[in-house]
Structures are given as structure tokens and as C-alpha cells.
Amino acid sequence: MKSTFFITALSLYASIACSQHKPKLENKVDQSSPRFPVAFIAEINTPKSHISIRYRPLIQTIGEKYLVLPLENSKDVYWGFNYAEKLDVKLYNKDIARKILTLVSITPSSVTSLGMEARFKDSEGVEYLKQLSDNIAPGLIPLYEIEAAKLAYLNKIIWAKKRLFKVHSGKLVRKIGVYEPVKVVNVIASEESYTPVRLTLKTVKGETGTFDVDISGTNTNNAGSDLEIVQNRTFKEVFYTDNPRLQYHLSPAMWKIIEKGQIYLGIPSAAVRVLKGEPNTINTTTTYYGIHEQWVYGNNEYYYFENGKLTVVQN
Fold first, then answer.
1. Are 234 and 213 in contact (CB under 8 A)?
2. Hey, how many other C-beta atoms are within 10 angstroms of the C-beta on 29?
3. Contact at 8 Å (CB) between 201 and 183?
4. Is the CB of residue 167 less than 8 Å from the CB of residue 203?
5. Which residues pair with 129 in a beta bridge?
6. Which residues contact 224 (CB under 8 A, 6 or more apart)?
7. Treating both helix axes as pointing N-terminal to C-terminal, what angle do 269-276 and 252-259 enclose, rounded to 10 degrees?
8. Which end of the chain is more exposed for a tag (fewer CB within 10 A), N or C?
9. Which residues have CB under 8 Å from 162's CB, separation 6+?
């Protein structure tokens, strides 16, 4: 049985929500936004089409190049990774770490009766066999992801949805603010195949930091991971590619509530969408008294709205 929690709204928040209005969109940064130099103002306030790098199963990447990540301990052996012609020879960092391999084929495993394996080839024609796990090749990063991320995000401004990473300037370190704009100044391969892309980010104040992220889900295990893990790994769950203050017509007072990351009864549905993202399902009922909506999220979360205002949260 699901338990229903009614969040008591403070009168302050209720009054703010009730006075919510939709201001006319103007070509200037909202006063509640961090102040950027003049050179950045146009880009921050220019709506951009959503950029999406699509997921591809491993078999669709045949012919593409992969980077072999080094093992943390140089004395460790690569699991399920062998020379194609010398299956009894173990591979160490010195043999294959940081090599660029081309994916040649995916076939039933020559080692186990149920699994699959991928055949790779290096620049000298030496071939390797990698045993797959859940149809991915752990420890290898598709270089397409890095190049695609460069084309999509390098030198672009993006907005943080969550306070997940830190930036620094000298000895000063702080967590990035919610909905704070940052510029992508570098894109490289990370050290983990489940978050293959490392973004170097720069704030308006010149602070810098890095964040490793899964761009598309290609050759990562994030699709089968716990929801909370996915939300902290995947690009679309961590960043906006458009200024959220231009996407959602909310007052400066409401943005201050949103930036606290908390949900109160009485706030408009647009504010919940900013905080929670798009629901999996929206069930709408129209009656004599108005429009009733039920928003369904993962982990059995339900949000109920009366005429656009949040009335009940159930989880």
C-alpha cells in the first residue's frame, strides 16, 4: 500500500505561488541569474534546439574505434581480454592499456557456451577477443562518444540541474549551484567506461572543474543501473542545454524557491517539471471544477495537480 504524504506549505510559499505570473520573455538575463560578461549574454538568452546523441547497441558500432582504459593496479590482469591467437596469454597494462582498437565483429563466445565476444584489431593488425558482459565491453570507451560530445557541447554553455560537482579557483573550492551556467572548455575520455566522457567546465568567475558523464548509454551499463545512479551519471539528467529560465516562464521569486531544490504544495506544475524533469506519464481528468492531473515518476512517485497547482505528493 502506498502511503500519501501531504506537504504543508508555508504561507509564504503559498502566497508566492498564488501570485505566480508569466512575464513577457525579454532579451536579457533574468535578475536572479548569475551575471555573465556581456560577451556571454546573447548565448545565454538564445534558445537552442535540444542536442541528443542517441544510444546504439554495440553491434551497431562495428568498424568504430575504442580506447582501452588502463587497470588501476598495473599487476592486475584484464578480465576476459586475450589475444585472439593466444587465448592462454594474459594481458596487462603494459600490453594493451591506452591502445586504440577497431571493433571487427561480435560473435558467440569461444570461451563460454552462453556468452558473446567482441573481436578487436589494433593498428598493426593484431587481433584481440573481449568477452562481453550484458552486451557491453567493460573497460573500453567508444571514441565516437568523445568526438560527438565535442561537436555537441565544446565551447557551449550548459546549465547544471544538480549540485553534483565542484569547481575551484586557486585554493577556493565550492559546489556548482543549481541552474548555474557553465561553459564546456574541454572534452576528453574519462577513466571509467560507464561515464566515458570527461567535461571540463568553467564558470563566469573563471572557476574550473571536471565532471564525468554518460552521453548516450552506448557501451555503458547505466541503462540497467539503479535509477539514482543513472540520474547522477547521464548527461540529460545532470545538465540543461537551454537556459531553463527561458524554457519555463516563472517569476524570480519562484526561481529562488526552485534553487533550494525543495518541493512545496501550491507551486505551479512548471516548477515541478524543472525540479523533477518530465514525468513518465501524465493522466488528465477534466471536470466541472477544472483540470486534475496525476504525474507519474519512477520509484512509485505521484504528483497531483488542481488547475496547474500542486496539491498532493504520493510515494
1. yes
2. 18
3. yes
4. yes
5. 82, 119
6. 134
7. 40
8. N
9. 178, 232, 238
* Amino acid at the residue 85: E
For the stretch 80-89, contacts whose Cβ atoms lie closer than 8 Å and that sit 24 or more positions apart, written own/partner, are: 80/111, 80/117, 80/130, 80/131, 80/133, 81/128, 81/129, 81/130, 81/131, 81/139, 82/128, 82/129, 83/126, 83/127, 83/128, 83/129, 84/119, 84/127, 84/128, 84/129, 85/127, 87/111, 87/129
The pLDDT of residue 227: 52
Show Cβ contacts of residue 242 under 8 Å, excluding neighbours closer than 6 positions.
47, 48, 50, 159
Query: Which pLDDT tens digit goes with each residue over 91-114?
Result: 999 999 999 999 999 999 988 878
Query: Do the beta carbons of residue 149 and residue 142 sit within 8 Å?
Result: no
Q: Per-residue confidence at 223, pLDDT binned at 50, 70, 90?
A: low
CA–CA distance, 135 with 100 (Å, rounded to integer): 20
State the amino acid at position 266 in one-letter form.
Answer: G
CA distance 245 to 238: 16
User: Cell 546573447 appears where?
Assistant: 42
C-alpha cell at 197: 566522457
**Side chain identity at 179, as an amino acid letter?**
Y
Instruction: Break the chain down into helix, strand, coil percent, rounded to 5.
Output: 20, 30, 45
Side-chain half-sphere of 117: how many Cα atoms within 13 Å?
21
Q: How far apart, in whole angstroms, are the C-alpha atoms of residue 207 and residue 296?
A: 38
Separation between Cα atoms, residue 272 and residue 279, nearest integer Å: 10
SS (H, E, C) 55-89: CCCHHHHCCCEEEECCCCCCCCCCCCEEECCECCC
- Give the DSSP H/E element, type plus range, for residue 200: strand 197-202
Helix, strand or coil, per DSSP, at residue 239: strand
Q: What pLDDT digit, counting tens, does each position of 237-291 carry?
A: 889 898 888 888 888 889 888 887 778 999 999 999 888 888 999 999 999 989 9
